[in-house]
Amino acid sequence: MAITVDFLEELFRRLSQAESRQLPESRVLVVDDDPLSNRLVIWAMRQAQLQARSTENPRTAIQLLRETHYDLVLLDVELPEMDGFELCKKLRTLPGYENVPVIYVTAHGDFENRAKGALAGGYDLITKPILPMELAVKVVTVLMKKHFMK
Asked: How confident is the model at residue 26 (pLDDT cuts 50, 70, 90)?
């Protein structure tokens, strides 16, 4: 973790010197039926200078995804009405979301759920309980990779 933080610090330093290679503002959608978890994840995203919005309902998430383009989606696996895997599959059918990174934030970090997540179109999985700094580093790293590796 320390090596990653040092790397990001150096990368941000270099980016601040290169005017044309700035990381654009990024929007993150958080979908988790646990309000406390939502608040913690939103706080972590804002500490990383990211615009973040959350919902506890997957159907509301689909509506939000249609209304606003999000650069990354954080999904819980256990959700009411449809699970995170199903929501990810639906997200992949929306215009502009074919390649948007989806990271599952879940207590179910076993191999079976990791495989289901990947097959549903997920990019990665981080297990609960989360460390806010770890989640922020992962999200920023994924967004930077997406932006600078085009």
From this structure: very high
Any domain includes 10: no
Domain containing 49: what range? 28-148
Asked if 91 contacts 97 with a C-beta cutoff of 8 angstroms, the reply is yes
User: Within a domain: residue 5?
Assistant: no
Distance from the first to the final alpha carbon of the chain: 25
Q: pTM for this structure?
A: 0.83
- Tell how far CA 70 is from the center of its chain: 9
8 Å CB contact between 48 and 136: yes
CA distance 139 to 142: 5
CATH number at residue 136: 3.40.50.2300
Rounded distance between C-alpha atoms, residue 135 and residue 46, angstroms: 12
